[in-house]
Design brief:
This protein has one helix at about 20-40; strands at about 45-50, 50-55, 60, 65, 75, 80-85, 90-105, 110-120, 135-140, 145-150, 165-170, 175, 190, 195, 200-205, 210-220, 225, 235-240, 245-250, 255-265. The chain is mainly β. Among the domains are: about 45-175, no CATH class; about 190-265. Strands 13, 14, 16, 17 and 20 form a five-stranded antiparallel beta sheet that branches. A four-stranded antiparallel beta sheet has the order 8-7-9-10, with no helix packed on it. A three-stranded antiparallel beta sheet has the order 1-4-5, with no helix packed on it. The longest helix is centred in the N-terminal third of the chain and has 22 residues, at about 20-40. The radius of gyration is 28 Å and the shape is extended. The mean pLDDT is about 90.
């Protein structure tokens, strides 16, 4: 099979290689890279740049990669701290910009050129006339500074899951998982629950309805997720209008099951409130220490509990 006919530098034995040949070779590689980046998408963040507020006047920006509107790479190689000055305003926008760095001069001309990056906080809201890439909005409030990172500023990977959230990929890079699809997310998502062979798990979905659409997934020990075996190796049953029962057959092997539930014909229904479960009753002598465990509390509609608040009644 012959090499396809495409623009390239054609070297010949005995040929004197000049600057023109080498620059043409570089230009061809750069053009190919720019075309690929333009195909994937430009003016967005590829991964990383997660923002952590350290102080009201300082944030930490995680390492990451973006491509500006000219398809130039902007790589923040390591975590960086950035000082903030809100002035009289209440919002700042964090941006990455491309800049060219040069080293090793010969006859006053640089011979080594590097893609470099500038990290800035801007008071003016986007869009901007230059080619910087926006990746975070900071809002100053009475309770502190809030960092907002929108999915529209990011490029999801090809294997994204349309969850509308930020996740860590296999390489532990912080990435956007893609915009949600055109239908609402599940009103209940159990996450993956370990269910042993020939056993079952009863889960409270709290939707107070039997008019439900249920999807069951299985996760195998190798990490693969499948619906193969549904109705034979595993299945589900609705128990009243509050619970779903996940059932395993006696087939050997570890397996985790996940139930996602939608309401049929739902139109503007109110969100399902979390269900509190403070754990088993305790009888404790005065002055003795004890531990409260609310680990069985659940949130619905794909949400997750992030904290518990305990109230003492006299």
């Amino acid at each position: 099979m012959s090499v396809r006919d495409e623009g390239k530098t054609r070297f010949q034995n005995g040929m004197r290689v000049t600057r023109e040949h080498l620059e043409h070779l570089q230009d061809m590689w750069i053009a190919a890279a720019m075309q690929l980046r333009a195909t994937v998408g430009v003016g967005r963040v590829s991964y990383g740049l997660k923002v952590e507020v350290l102080l009201p006047d300082k944030v930490k920006v995680g390492a990451g990669l973006a491509f500006d509107r000219q398809a130039r790479p902007i790589a923040l190689e390591q975590d960086s701290e950035l000082a903030l000055d809100f002035g009289a305003g209440s919002a700042l926008f964090l941006v990455l910009g491309y800049q060219l760095r040069s080293e090793a001069l010969l006859n006053g001309e640089p011979t080594l050129l590097y893609n470099d990056v500038k990290l800035e906080a801007r008071a003016a809201a986007p869009p901007y006339q230059d080619d910087v890439v926006v990746f975070c909005e900071l809002r100053r409030q009475q309770s502190g500074v809030e960092a907002i990172q929108k999915g529209e500023w990011y490029l999801p990977p090809l294997d994204h899951g349309h969850s509308g959230t930020f996740i860590l990929d296999a390489a532990q890079r912080w990435r956007y998982d893609g915009h949600p699809l055109g239908f609402a997310g599940p009103r209940f998502d159990s996450g993956f629950v370990a269910v042993a062979p020939a056993s079952q798990a009863r889960l409270v979905h709290g939707l107070q309805s039997t008019n439900l659409l249920v999807q069951i997934q299985a996760r195998l020990p190798d990490g693969s997720i499948t619906t193969r075996g549904l109705g034979q190796d595993f299945w589900y049953e609705l128990v009243g209008d509050q619970e779903v029962r996940l059932v395993r057959s006696a087939a050997a092997g570890d397996m985790e099951l996940r139930a996602m539930i939608w309401l049929f014909g739902e139109t503007g229904a109110a969100p399902v409130l979390p269900m509190a479960d403070a754990g088993s009753d305790l009888a404790v002598e005065f002055g003795e220490s004890f531990t409260l465990d609310a680990g069985n509390s659940r949130a619905f509609e794909g949400r997750h509990l992030t904290r518990f608040i305990w109230t003492q009644f006299s």
